[in-house]
Amino acid sequence: MTLTATEAKRVRVRVHPLRAEVVRGFAPWAGLAVFLTVGALLAAVADRWQGGWAETRTELHGVLLIVLPLAAAAGCWQGGRERRRRTEELWATAARGPLARFLASALPVAAWVTAGYVAVAAGALLATWPYARGDRPYLDLLPADAVAVAAAAVAGQVVGRLVAWRPTAPLLGVGGYVLLALSSRGDAGAGRYLNPALPVPEGVVPVAWQPVAAAVWAAGPAAAAVLAYAARRRYTALLPLAAATAAGALLVQGGAGWWHTDPVGGRQVCDTSTTPQICVSARYGELLPQVTAALSGVTGSLDGVRNLPARFEDRPGAPRPDEAELPMLTPMGWSFVRGRLTDPEQYAWEAVMALQNRGDCEGPLDPRVSRADDAVENLLAPSPAQEYFDELDADGDEASRAELRDRRAARARLTSMDADERRTWLSAYFATAGDCVPDGVPAL
Asked: What is the pTM assigned to this prediction?
C-alpha cells in the first residue's frame, strides 16, 4: 500500500511523540540556561583549573551546587505548564496513560539540562587539554554527576505537578541550593556523603563503586517519585526506593573510606643533573623543564656547595630531613596558570627561602643571621620586592638607614669573594639552615 505525503507525515508524528517537546518549547531553553550559567561560572575562575586535569574534575563537580537546583527549578516549572495553560483536563483525555504523558513532558527537560551540563564539561576538558602538563583526564565522577542533574529535573517535575503555586519553581531552586550548601559542611556528619554536590579535593579519587552508588542514590528517589505519582501500579515505586536506600547506606557507611589518595600525586619526576636535585609531582611532570629553568640561577650558584638538601621535593606533607620543599605549584591560579609559571623570579626566591628554612623561628632574627640570609638571597635569587624595601629603609630613620648600609655591605662582600672562597662560606652557611641563633653562622 502506498501512503500519501500527509499520511506519511502522520505516521512519523506517531512514531516520534517526543519530537515537539524536544525541539520546541521550554526544554531547549532550560538546557541553554544550564549551558550558559555553568559556562560563565567556569570561565570566571578558569585560572584555577585550566591546565590541570584534577582541578578541572573538581570544578566540574563543584558547579553541581548551582546546576542541581537550577535543573530542579526547570523541571518544576515544566511540571506546572499544563496548569498554567489550563489544559489539564484536555491532557487527561489523551490515549496515553499518566506515566507516558508525564515522561513525554519530563524527559525532554531532563535530557536538555543534562546535555547542557555535559556540553560544558566537554568544553572544559578540551580547554584543559592544550595546557595540561602531565597526568590524565578524570572522568570518574562525570557519569554520576550527569545522572544527578537529570534526576533533579525529573524530581522537580513531580513537585511542579503536585504544588499549584507559581513561585514554587524559584523557591525550590533556592531551597535546593541552601540544602546542598549546608550538607557540604564538614560538621554535617556522615550524612554529607549523600550530597551529590559534595566538594572533592584534587588529590583524591573514588573507589570503583562510589560513582555507581552515587548514581543509584541520585536516580532512585526521582524514579520512585515518578512511579508513585504516575504509574498504574504505584507499589512499583518501592523497587527504586529500595535501591536508593541501599546505595545511600553504602555511601554513608563507606564515608571517606570510599575515597583514597591519588597515587599519581605521590610520585615524583626529577632532574638529577642539578644541585640540589629538582623534583615535581608526576601530576605536572612536563612542567619540570620550566621549574629547572626558573631555578637555574640558584642551582648554578650552588654547584660544589656542601650541606645542601639532596633535592627539592613536591609531595604532600612535610619534607624529609634531607629534602627542601619546592615552592607550591598548587592551588592553580597563583604561581602556576595554564601550564606556565607566572613569575619565575618570585618562584626562585621562594626556593631560596625553603633552603634557608628559618620559617619556624619566632620573633626577629639576630642581625648577623638576617644579614647573612639577605646576602645569600641577593646572590642566589633576589626578592622581586628587594628594591622597594631598600628604598623604604633609605627614606626611613637613622637606624633603618644604618641597617640598609650593613645589608648592602654584606651583599657586596659575598659577591666579591672568589669561587672557592664563596663555596666554602656557603657550605658553612647552609650547615646552619633552620637554626634561629647566630652561633655557627659565618660572618660577612
From this structure: 0.86
